[in-house]
């Protein structure tokens, strides 16, 4: 029984590393900056483009799942930025449109894409979001597997909507932004 359990554990670990290996060769970069964070100051009811490039640096084609989710800060002493799950779509995701959720990349291919971001009137404030991506498996490893491991990467997007003084009046701290942003 111990040998069977050890074999199953070994196979699961090997499968996990194989899935992680696919994502290791996929990258996402913003068109406007080399940073991991994108900062916008936009007006309500004005559509803004979020330009990004997806690249596949492997010898195999991959299908990438892309989504925009709400961002937050960790609840610890460091207060690091973090991305919420795909189910948490209260403040950012619903305002991002016109993007491809699934993108197939050939070996060594890079594709430039754009999503549209537009907040409605009276939504002045500071919003945190993320663009997250993961590799979608093209093959089934085992029939009847009862769990899955999702490995994803993310980049951050901070957005000031409307007049910053209106956001300050609502108690929203805008200290992370500068006049140059």
Account of the protein in words:
By secondary structure, this protein is of the alpha+beta class. Helix content is 16%, strand content 39%. It has two helices and ten strands, in the order αββββββββββα. It has helices spanning 2-24, 164-169, and strands spanning 26-30, 37-42, 48-56, 62-73, 81-83, 96-97, 102-105, 110-117, 125-136, 153-161. The strands form two sheets. Strands 2, 4, 5, 7, 9 and 10 form a six-stranded mixed sheet that branches. It has a four-stranded antiparallel sheet with strand order 1-3-8-6.
Entry keywords:
181 residues; alpha+beta; six-stranded mixed β-sheet; four-stranded antiparallel β-sheet; globular
Lay out the secondary structure.
Layout: H1 2-24, E1 26-30, E2 37-42, E3 48-56, E4 62-73, E5 81-83, E6 96-97, E7 102-105, E8 110-117, E9 125-136, E10 153-161, H2 164-169
Parallel strand pairs: 2-10
Antiparallel strand pairs: 1-3, 3-8, 4-5, 4-7, 4-9, 6-8, 9-10
């Amino acid at each position: 029984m111990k040998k069977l359990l050890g074999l199953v554990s070994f196979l699961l670990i090997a499968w996990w590393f194989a899935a992680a290996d696919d994502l290791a060769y996929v990258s996402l970069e913003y068109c406007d900056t080399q940073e991991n964070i994108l900062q916008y100051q936009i007006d309500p009811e004005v559509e803004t483009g979020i330009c990004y490039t997806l690249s596949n640096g492997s010898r195999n084609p991959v299908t990438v799942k892309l989504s925009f989710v709400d961002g937050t800060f960790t609840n610890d002493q460091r207060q690091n930025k973090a991305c919420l799950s795909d189910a948490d779509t209260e403040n950012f995701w619903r305002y991002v449109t016109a993007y491809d959720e699934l993108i197939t990349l050939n070996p060594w291919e890079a594709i430039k894409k754009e999503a549209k971001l537009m907040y409605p009137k009276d939504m002045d404030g500071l919003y945190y979001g993320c663009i997250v991506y993961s590799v979608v498996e093209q093959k089934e490893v085992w029939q009847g597997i009862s769990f899955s491991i999702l490995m994803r990467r993310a980049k951050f997007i901070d957005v000031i909507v409307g007049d910053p003084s209106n956001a300050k009046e609502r108690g929203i701290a805008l200290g992370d932004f500068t006049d140059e942003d």
